[in-house]
Amino acid sequence: MLENYNLADVAALITVIGNPTRMLEAYGSRGYRALNIEAGMIAQTIYLVATASSLGCGAALGFNFLAMNEALELAGTDLRSLLFIMVGPERRNNACFNALFPMERAASVE
User: The Nitroreductase domain covers which part of the protein (predicted)?
Assistant: First the structure.
């Protein structure tokens, strides 16, 4: 998993699972894209529910999906883990992030 998530602090780990083979059979080459769109819609809904519940939420793509598929007993099936979403109380002392440009830099962009 990624360094910025600690599974010991997570209240819930939600795994989005899909069947790429079936999607490719049903929709051809667009099936993979459709499957990822559906996974994204699920993730967005979980983010919205977590925010409404005053919980933190984070999606992770940087994982060993082969090991996770085996741990979830998906090996030998057409199902695959697509995305992991961690939900739980917000961490204290969150990182400070400011996306605003300094004024002199913003003026030079115009």
Answer: 3-88
Alpha-carbon gap, residue 73 to 70, rounded angstroms: 5
Domains of the chain: 7-93 (3.40.109.10)
Segment 6-22, tens digit of pLDDT: 777 789 999 999 999 99
Q: 38-65 pLDDT, tens per residue? A: 999 999 999 999 999 999 888 887 778 8
Residue 46, judged by CB atoms within 10 A of its CB (0-12, 13-18, 19+), counts as: buried
Distance CA 78, CA 30 (A): 18
Measured between alpha carbons, how far is 25 from 67 in angstroms, rounded to an integer? 26
Strand partners, 36: none
